[in-house]
Design a protein that fits this description.
Two copies of one chain form a homodimer.
Chain A (H helix, E strand, L loop, with lengths): L4 H8 L3 H9 L6 H14 L5 H8 L4 E5 L8 H16 L4 E5 L4 H10 L5 E4 L7 H7 L5 E4 L9 E5 L1 H14 L4 E5 L3 H5 L3 H16 L3 E5 L5 H12 L7 E4 L3 H13 L9 E5 L13 E3 L3 H16 L6 E5 L15
Parallel strand pairs in A: 1-2, 1-3, 3-4, 4-5, 5-11, 6-7, 6-8, 8-9, 9-10
Helix pairs in contact in A: 1-2, 1-3, 5-13, 6-7, 8-10, 11-12
The structure holds a DNA duplex (16 and 16 nucleotides).
Pfam family, one (chains A, B): Peripla_BP_3
Keywords (chains A, B): DNA-binding, Transcription, Transcription regulation
Organism (chains A, B): Bogoriella caseilytica
Chain lengths: 337, 337
DNA sequence: CTGAAAGCGCTTACAG
DNA sequence: CTGAAAGCGCTTACAG
């Protein structure tokens, strides 16, 4: 059988409370005692029993992360957020329990009701997300990565997608471009109100409008044929786009570059291209692309920070938007004409 | 505060042991009593406290799944296994804790040592995997999806990759093809000894050999340029391949089909193509491809089954290989010459 | 078919 | 700086 705190106490010649306090640091312990306890722990290979700890201490050191991973969604980006959350959680000694689509709501009820977890991180939130509706009734610390339509009472963290769109549009318009195009996510993402595609598209369109330039949006499925016809839409009409913003998965972006090549269009000579809110590396593309990156580690470590804060008691609801950064790679410049 | 078993017992007018037994079914309970208990549970919104349950019952109802999700690995396929595991686990009332690369070994020690989990599912195993080495010392139920170089003492489940290769090679050779090609994973996968690419490639080569036909292997990185040159390798030499087996991610397979198109090669007129051990849908390709699918649900639900069995006590170590199935779509036929 | 009670392995006031 | 002990909320022999 595994060693218990009693074994450690005996081995170290102290009481179990002293062992517990030495471990938690919640009470001063003399150096000499601490060393003996540490030696005993090493000697016995002791690890505190999680169940007992949870029961007595009312802390499980597990967070739930709910990420639907819908079948038509781009897995690598979404998983990058899950991994970033796991990594950030470990900084606070927390593990993560993964709740997926099948059991989004049932799972939330189960793990919070039975106190398997101390808090919840909500990923890939929809404008109107039933997980949020449920969460409001649940009385458990939670942080939303993303911003639902009604964020009242919630703690939300996200990249400032409106600022991303603004940056991209300004860059292009300042460069002299008057006809902008957005290569976006599949239509289904917008229809279901998936948070970041929607917010980005809206900001893109309204920024273009307020700068007085045209904005065309194409939303291809993830098939070759669709990527092609989306590019045809943007580039083969009477008023072809000269400033392209891509907010879609990497394979589509690579396709799009193929298509520009096939048309003999030079970047940035004929067309300026910006990759917006991308989680992947755009330097491996040909050519390397200017990018306004979406950094999962950033959003998630802040989210975990805010979740940990809530362990001590409720905090002020808020929407925290992280400022974007424009990274120059030479794919967007002034219109040369 | 949340309701406890004491509240339920009081509300139902029975003892707490009766409530517990009604919940677990480990002792008969009269219908009348059961109904009153169920009513009380509903009334109070009772959910058993996981920590207390784990402490008293020595069962946490959580499995760990360790999936490194290496950065250069194809996320969708790997996540499909994680999701399939989570889904299968839920059939037995289990949740899953996700352990990723950062914390593969430390995480395993932690969650098993502190009894956060009742068992471990090991995903994406390498030929020589330090997780396996660790696991052998750990005394916790475990099932490996995949087969390491030395499976002694382990319970392993996997698709029979050798049989997949056999099926593919036989199909092509029976169709008259004498020059086979394999479009495989990136070289790094083989170098690190990633299980299924290695096993597949070896079987492919040896099956071809024993059928007396040539076998060429290309292992492109996931870039356009590399996919192109890999296809050039296979199809632009003096003895171009006529039977192509693809064991790589979907975007590369799509690229490969592009490349065949670009060469004016007809499928299956000029080249027969089989997609091997693919987790994605090959009917959306142009043309739809014959496929010998790798079905995560299959491997994972069997793995979970075997893990649950071990909860009752040790079981015989074994390597269970699941038989593959050939699905015809018309992309592989006899050489028309 | 049901109940009273010990015990799982911790944390944390309470006491000194 | 340290200890003795109550108590967290369950499960499961033990008893009837």
């Amino acid at each position: 059988m595994a060693a218990t705190i009693i074994d450690v106490a005996r081995e170290a010649g102290v009481s179990i409370s002293t062992v517990s306090y030495a471990l938690s640091g919640k009470r001063p312990v003399s150096d000499r005692t601490r060393r003996r306890i540490e030696a005993a722990i090493l000697e016995l290979g002791y690890r505190p029993n999680a169940g007992a700890r949870a029961l007595a201490g009312r802390r499980t050191y597990v967070f739930a992360v709910t990420e639907p991973l819908r079948p038509d969604t781009y897995t690598p980006t979404h998983m990058a957020f899950v991994l970033a959350t796991a990594k950030a959680a470990r900084q606070y000694d927390y593990d993560v329990l993964l709740l997926t689509q099948e059991e989004a709501n049932g799972g939330l009820q189960r793990v919070t009701g039975s106190r398997i977890v101390d808090g919840v991180i909500v990923l890939d939130v929809l404008d109107h997300d039933e997980r949020i509706t449920l969460l409001r009734t649940l009385d458990i610390p939670a942080v939303v990565v993303g911003v639902p339509a009604d964020p009242a009472g919630l703690v939300c963290v996200d990249l400032d997608f409106a600022a991303v769109a603004q940056l991209a549009v300004d860059r292009l318009v300042d460069g002299g471009h008057r006809r902008l195009g957005l290569l976006g996510h599949p239509a289904a993402a917008y229809e279901r109100g998936q948070n970041f595609p929607v917010r980005f598209r809206e900001a893109f369109v309204s920024c273009a409008q307020s700068r007085g330039v045209s904005a065309q949006v194409a939303t291809p499925e993830r098939t070759i044929a669709d990527a092609r016809s989306a590019m045809a839409e943007l580039f083969d009409g009477p008023d072809p786009v000269t400033g392209l913003v891509m907010h879609c998965e990497d394979s589509i972006q690579m396709r799009a570059l193929d298509e520009l090549r096939a048309r003999g269009l030079d970047i940035p000579g004929d067309v300026s291209v910006i990759s917006a809110a991308s989680t992947f590396d755009t330097t491996t593309f040909t050519p390397a692309l200017d990018v306004i990156p979406l950094v999962p580690d950033q959003s998630c470590s802040r989210a975990v920070e805010l979740l940990v804060e809530q362990l001590e008691g409720p905090i002020e609801p808020r929407v925290e938007l992280l400022p974007p950064e424009y990274i120059e790679r030479g794919s967007a410049s002034a219109v040369l004409a």
